[in-house]
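Progress note, project year one: complex with manganese (II) ion.
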Amino acid sequence: LCTRKFQPQDTVIDLGDGVIFGRGATVMMAGPCAVESEDQVMRTAEFLRSKFDIKVFRAGAFKPRTSPYTFQGLADEGLNLLAKVRKEFGMKIITEVKDTTHLAAVADVADIIQIGTKAMYNFSLLAMCGQLKQPIVLKRGFMTTIKEFLQAADFILSSGNSKVILCERGIRSFEPQTRFCLDVCSAALIKELSHLPIVLDPSHAMGIAAQVPLVAQSAAALGVDGLLIETHPDPANAKSDKEQALSFEEFGRIVPVLDKICTAV
Ligand code: PEP
Ligand code: MN
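Model obtained:
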């Protein structure tokens, strides 16, 4: 269902307020990795909305961490804070779902539901997301072939939800000095293979804040439908993914550059 053979024309996903995936513009989605506190999300949302008119706020309440001894997210309390961000700043919320147990709770507050790189193989979750109305950002598994990635998208589409946005967020390579390897080749190929919008996540791919802006520039130059970028009011004390979170100052420097590139391509 996700192939151009099945549907030649681009899928367009319009969330209102000018947030449109698949019509040539690049939607900026930004925010911290995780919801940590009211102060943290409110400060971040205020910064993004008032300074750059960013309309999509990202942050996880259910975090799929690789160690059980690290911060796992604020769960329902985090969702309540995201609802507050939406209400106060009129931003769209993208937040992730780890498994089917809390899907209904996430769907209650999310404008866009994110399925992370590890949950991409949770086929019951994919099918259940197929029964929802919200757009689903499906992240590519970090060891997933393009074919498997597109098949995962079809699990959602074939269950009834046509609003799937693919996200390339880096795959595992032999190189330990970068967190993952942003597969721009897959993004380029997927534009031809699939009619679904595709967005890139330079933050999780690079994993090092100092280099995230350069990778974001190259992602923007590819002409994708959106970018997911992590930013935090106090990166050094972030409870998850602190190495890759841009400070407000770093974020503020890269946004006009990305805008320029996005307008040019
Ligand atoms: C995230 O977006 O914070 C996240 C956990 O992403 P991924 O599933 O790509 O690792
Ligand atoms: Mn993260």
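The mean pLDDT is 98.
The pocket of manganese (II) ion (ligand 2) is lined by residues 33, 204, 230, 240-241 (CB under 6 Å).
No further modelling is planned for this target in the current period.
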